[in-house]
Design goal:
It is a single chain. The protein is of the alpha/beta class and about 350 residues long. The protein is about 30% helix and about 15% strand. The chain has 2 domains: about 240 residues, TIM Barrel; about 60 residues, Antifreeze-like/N-acetylneuraminic acid synthase C-terminal domain (Type Iii Antifreeze Protein Isoform Hplc 12, Alpha-Beta Complex), CATH 3.90.1210.10. Strand 8, helix 8 and strand 9 form a beta-alpha-beta unit. Helix 9 packs parallel to helix 10. The N and C termini lie far apart (about 60 Å).
Length: about 350
């Protein structure tokens, strides 16, 4: 599988994980805070910052009936109408250019999730290097086709989609011209639990759809995201805020700067640890071979004496014969005087 180039980075299992800080609505309608989030993401070591490009009117209708309200008491957004929630959470389109510019200055890749075709046109005007499709839009064929026609890499969250639906999504994208697709395992609850994460799906996605895979992670902490690297995740997306205590529509399940920095470090360590299928000592282990156990003379011996449990021991270091010969040597005569602490060799026997 060819690496996928996004900005200055290559996405593949041969490269460190591509860590994306999702700003979402955590700017709390302050451009100054949005730019501070960008700066914090860069300082923490993220490779990209992602926005969401929509307005309340491109997402839903301004209605208060039950169908247009969030009525699950367990939801972070319980009691909101969809329209009011998106009014509060959206990133003003006139901010995008300034946010993207700050990303470029700091060496970050900047891109966004468009939620309708007008957002794609707008983002094309800003020359984004790739697109993200959100879980709730992964069956919006007109949007998928619009994005695919840009010929840019497409990252797709798979939340809630059945394997059949994902097959349709990938087919629609490829038929419309998309050649570089990254599927992110995603659980669309906020926050999500580790038990619902089902990371074993990640290698199955890669095999089934022959594409790069990753994780859009809504769990708390870094454990799930780091574990995903061991299963082949090459992209990790986490919501990001300056401080959960300062609130915001997604703050409750967003990472803070020190946590993002820890994720960047540990995800790369996890990637480095994968290596290859290998047995036997590594180059750096070879020096440690001498600390294995081996057979040593444990008491002074005269020529003609035999090895016994008292004068033959398997101990460290490893300069003598391997311990597997212990039983074979018991009762065998030595052909010379041997001092206590002599590493046993075949030439001393018989």
């Amino acid at each position: 599988m060819k690496p996928i180039k996004i900005g200055q980075y290559l996405i593949s299992r041969e490269n460190p994980p591509f860590i994306v800080a999702e700003m979402s609505g955590n700017h709390n309608h302050s451009l100054e805070r949005a730019l501070a989030i960008v700066e914090a993401a860069a300082k923490a070591g993220a490779k990209a910052v992602k926005l969401q490009t929509y307005t309340a009117d491109t997402m839903t209708l301004d209605l208060e009936s039950s169908e247009f309200r969030i009525e699950d008491p367990k939801s972070l957004w319980y009691g909101y109408s969809l329209y009011r929630l998106y009014q509060q959470a959206y990133t003003p389109w006139e901010w995008h250019e300034a946010i993207f510019q700050r990303c470029h200055e700091l060496g970050l890749v900047a891109f966004s999730t468009p939620f309708d075709e007008t957002a794609v046109d707008f983002l094309e005007g800003l020359n984004v290097p790739c697109y993200k499709i959100a879980s709730f839009e992964n069956l919006d064929y007109p949007l998928l086709q619009k994005v695919a026609k840009t010929k840019k890499p497409i990252i797709v969250s798979t939340g809630m989609a059945t394997v059949g639906e994902l097959g349709e999504t990938v087919d629609v994208l490829r038929e419309a011209g998309a050649e570089e697709i990254i599927l992110l395992k995603c659980t669309s609850t906020y926050p999500a639990t580790p038990e619902d994460s089902n990371l074993l799906t990640i290698p199955h996605l890669r095999q089934l759809f022959d594409c790069e895979v990753g994780l859009s992670d809504h769990t708390l902490g870094i454990g799930v995201a780091v574990a995903s690297v061991a299963l082949g995740a090459t992209v990790i997306e986490k919501h990001f805020t300056l401080s959960r205590a300062e609130g915001g529509v997604d703050a409750a399940f967003s990472m803070e700067p020190d946590e993002l920095q820890q994720l960047v470090v540990e995800a790369e360590r996890a990637w480095q640890s994968l290596g290859t299928v290998k047995y036997g000592p590594t180059e750096n282990e070879k020096e440690s071979l001498k600390f294995r156990r081996s057979l040593y003379v444990a008491a002074d011996m005269r020529a003609g004496e035999v090895f016994t449990e008292q004068n033959l021991k398997a101990i460290r270091p490893g300069f003598g014969l391997p311990p597997k010969y212990y039983q074979l040597l018991l009762g065998k005569k030595v052909n010379r005087d041997l001092k206590k602490g002599t590493a046993v060799k075949w030439e001393y026997v018989g």
